[in-house]
Amino acid sequence: MPHLPYHFWYLITSFGGAGLTLPLAFAIALWLTVGYSWKLAAGWLFLLGVAVALVTATKVAFLGWGVGVPVWDFTGLSGHAMLATAVFPVAAFLVLLPAPPAMRVAGVLLALFGGALVSFSRIVIEAHSPSEAITGCIVGALTALVFIRIAWNATPGRMPIVPVALSLMLIALGLHNVHVPTHRWVTHLALKVSGHDRPFVRGSWRGLRDTSAPVAPFSPLPNTRNVAVPLQNPDA
């Protein structure tokens, strides 16, 4: 699949952007409140919030202090991978909750595959290393599956499923190319809490691996992106 055109992979990777997945997550919470219970909605937002906090913490740790795993080329969990594998399976589960269990499982598995495809696209376009995309995908999938396990036996209300499906579909299609500068925000946060003027960058590790000199402590480098990717698709 990597030999497919790059514009295809950029199309796929956009489905993991915060500008799409976060509104979709809040729409899911709204429908859970209306059709089921506010406790389910709160549980969903709590689990997703924990996952978002974990992604943010790993990125801040690297950008602010250079904390990462050089041997794995790991500088932080992929936000796109996490959000895609967390939000889309829960959206599929919500739509299929009134359906038979076998259909629910099939829908969730299909959505998980879609999230994994977004994760893979992050590697193909060189926005993330394999370790960052895989770990982000795992965290997102665990978030979705934990919530689905909690909500599996929820009693469907009288909410018609067609408006739910249409609203989620319209959000996904309508916000597909909406860009939210999450990387810029996280970088600003990292510099604020670390007190450094410039963020750490991935290139410092690559430079050290190319020399035989002893590894010296990292020092903040110019404010450049972790990887060379087009500006319209920032790392998240």
What descriptive keywords fit this protein?
236 residues, mainly alpha, disordered C terminus, transmembrane, PAP2/HPO, transmembrane helix, membrane, PAP2 superfamily protein
β-strand amount: under 5%
Number of domains: 1
The number of helices is 9
**Which series of helices and strands comes N to C?**
HHHHHHHHH
Q: Mean pLDDT, as a whole number? A: 85
- The coarse silhouette is globular
Separation of termini?
23 Å
Which percent bin holds the helix content?
A: 55-70%
Whole-number radius of gyration?
19 Å
Task: Identify low-pLDDT runs.
Answer: 209-234
**How many extended strands?**
0
Characterize the main sheet.
Answer: none
Counting helices, strands and paired strands, the structural category is mainly alpha
Organism: Paraburkholderia diazotrophica
Keywords: Membrane, Transmembrane, Transmembrane helix
Domain Phosphatidic acid phosphatase type 2/haloperoxidase: 77-154
Protein name: PAP2 superfamily protein
